[in-house]
Specification:
Keywords: ATP-binding, Isomerase, Lyase, Metal-binding, Multifunctional enzyme, NAD, NADP, Nucleotide-binding, Potassium. Its EC number is 4.2.1.136, 5.1.99.6. It comes from Intrasporangium calvum. In the N-terminal section; belongs to the NnrE/AIBP family. In the C-terminal section; belongs to the NnrD/CARKD family. The protein has 20 helices and 18 strands. It has 494 residues and is α/β, with parallel strands linked by helices. The protein has two domains: 220 residues, Rossmann fold; 267 residues, 3-Layer(aba) Sandwich (UDP-N-acetylmuramoyl-L-alanine:D-glutamate ligase). It has an eleven-stranded mixed sheet with strand order 1-9-18-17-16-15-14-13-10-11-12, with helices on both faces. Strands 4-3-2-5-6-7-8 form a seven-stranded parallel sheet, with helices on both faces. Strand 3, helix 4 and strand 4 form a beta-alpha-beta unit. Helix 11 crosses helix 17. The longest helix is centred in the N-terminal third of the chain and has 21 residues. It is elongated and about 80 Å long. The relative contact order is 0.10. Bound molecules: ligand NAX. Ligand NAX binds next to helix 1, helix 2 and helix 3. The site of ligand NAX has 25 residues, from helix 1, helix 2 and helix 3.
Length: 494
């Protein structure tokens, strides 16, 4: 699992490490790690020149020391000092080290044209304007210099891209767009959350010897190696009931295919059994496409309610189906609530509950619970809105997107953030497959946070496998779940 610590926790972890080390040691380690990465990128690109953009804080200090090391190694190094008060505000020992090593110093406020020219000439540009002490946005001088970076330069952000909210929540303001971020000790939330992930580029973590395991994570990301740890693998004593029976209330006369996709995904991901409840058309399709599914009600360990369900449907059969859906919501069993089923949520549930909206559905849910929220609002601040929905409903919320976010109802709990899927997965029916997969995991006893994030990872990997760089269809993703789970489990044996 990749863990990112909030700025507050990072500072606490750094303080603990600094108490054990000589003064300045952490900064030296950071600078050495940064210089090593810059050297590698210069070698890969046959580059000779480095330009360092340097701000007033310790982030600028790391960057100045790294510029000194790169100068010593024979690269042509320029450092551009951004603060209004020039030399007086930047890390003094770092500046001395860079100058002693032969780096050319340009004070941007004194020589704006020289600064622009220096920046334009860098094969590698180090963004050391601000790190975890930064507020969102770039000041005009910084923005002008960032604009002057050559298109083919390799931009390395030092610790955190300047202009981002390091905690990854506030989307306001311009930011540097980095090819790579070299971060120290541990990832920061901006590296893993939608507001910052694009601008972060490739993430390289340099070990500077800070211990972070006992500090709580603000953001977590499951990796392929976590699958074997979390996946419910049956043992010799298991039968189909002990492995988990999933009741699926999905599909209707309008969106009948959603039932096939969700049930297929549940079966392909190894559920003990599916009991399917639907109206005549999807019942016929499910019987035909997934003979393993049992049609009709019975005992289940968890419910999936909602894919393709029309909460407004009328008529005897649709009303009977909606009645089962309402009973599932009122039950004390774990539940995945998706798509049309989200409209049926009227009160807080005690049992484990996973809501799986996309941005539009989350906006609709939040608007029903409080002031109007638009889809654009959710897309702008996905974590805040997912958290609000989780707090208001008491459920775990999985907000689907190119980065999918999963948050539990505890406001202090971590955000799970997954980006495993190719963009081709943005296709009709993909959500029905995810819901079926999450249902399998909830029925097997996983908690909603693990079920949601693990389902997102496996769904994305299956889509990648089917895509191979080309289009995917949702049914193919569902059918790829079996080999995908098998291969991910095999990694543990390798
Ligand atoms: N604390 C430590 O032990 C270590 C810190 N390190 C480095 O230190 C950094 C944190 O240093 P600081 O706490 O000094 O903070 P920063 O260097 O990130 O930024 C603080 C300075 O930037 C100014 N500032 C904030 N937002 C701005 C904006 N949008 N535009 C222009 N200026 C802005 C602030 O007024 C302040 O002067 C880390 O990101 C990391 O690079 C590393 O040396 C590793 C060890």
């Amino acid at each position: 699992m990749i863990r990112a610590l909030s700025v507050t926790e990072v500072r606490a972890a750094e303080r603990a490490a600094m108490a054990q080390l000589p003064e300045g040691e952490l900064m030296q380690r950071a600078a050495e790690g940064l210089a090593a990465v810059a050297t590698a990128r210069l070698a890969e690109r046959d580059g000779r020149s480095v330009v360092a953009l340097v701000g007033a804080g310790d982030n600028g200090g790391d960057t100045l020391y790294a510029a000194g090391l790169l100068s010593d190694a024979g690269f042509a190094c320029a450092v551009v000092l951004l603060p209004d008060s020039g030399r007086a505000r930047v890390h003094p020992a770092g500046l001395r080290a860079a100058e002693l090593a032969g780096a050319a110093v340009v004070v941007a406020v004194d020589d704006p044209a020289g600064a622009v020219q220096a920046v334009a000439e860098g094969d590698v540009v180090l963004d050391g304007i601000v790190g975890i002490g930064g507020r969102p946005g770039l000041r005009p001088r910084a923005a002008e210099l960032v604009d002057a970076i050559a298109d083919d330069a390799w931009v390395i952000a030092v610790d955190v891209v300047s202009g981002l909210d390091p905690d990854g929540l506030d989307p306001d303001g311009d930011a540097v767009w980095a090819d790579e971020t070299v971060t120290f000790g541990v990832p920061k939330p901006a590296h893993l959350l939608p507001a910052g992930e694009g601008a972060t580029g490739r993430l390289t973590v340099v070990d500077i010897g800070i211990e972070t395991d006992e500090f709580p994570a603000a953001v977590e990301r499951l990796t392929h190696d976590d699958v074997a740890e979390l996946w419910p693998v049956p043992g010799p004593g298991d039968d189909k009931y002990s492995r988990g029976v999933l009741g699926v209330v999905a599909g209707g006369e309008t969106y009948a295919g959603a039932a096939v996709l969700a049930v297929t995904a549940a079966v392909e991901s190894g559920v003990g059994m599916v009991r399917y409840v639907g109206t005549p058309t999807p019942v016929g399709l499910v019987r035909h496409a997934v003979p393993e599914a049992v049609v009709g009600e019975g005992r289940v360990q968890a419910w999936l309610v909602g894919p393709g369900l029309d909460p407004q449907a009328t008529g005897a059969e649709a009303s009977a189906q909606l009645q089962v859906a309402r009973e599932a919501l009122a039950s004390d069993l774990p539940l995945v609530l998706d798509a049309g089923g989200l409209d049926l949520l009227t009160e807080t549930r005690e049992a484990p509950t996973l809501l799986t909206p996309h941005a539009g559905e989350l906006a609709r849910l939040l608007s029903r619970l409080g002031p109007t929220v638009t889809r654009a609002d959710v897309e702008r601040e996905p974590v805040r809105h997912a958290r609000r929905a989780a707090e208001q409903t008491g459920a775990t919320v999985l907000l689907k997107g190119s980065t999918t976010i999963v948050v539990g109802p505890d406001p202090g709990g971590p955000v799970r953030s997954q980006t495993d899927a190719p963009a081709w997965l943005a296709t009709a029916g993909a959500g029905d497959v995810l819901a079926g997969l999450a249902g399998t995991l909830l029925a097997a006893g996983l908690d909603p946070l693990d079920a949601g994030s693990l389902a997102t990872l496996v769904h994305g990997v299956a889509a990648d496998r089917v895509s191979g760089g080309g289009p995917v269809r949702a049914l193919a993703v569902a059918q790829a779940l079996r080999p995908t789970v098998r291969d991910l489990l095999r990694r543990a044996d390798a």
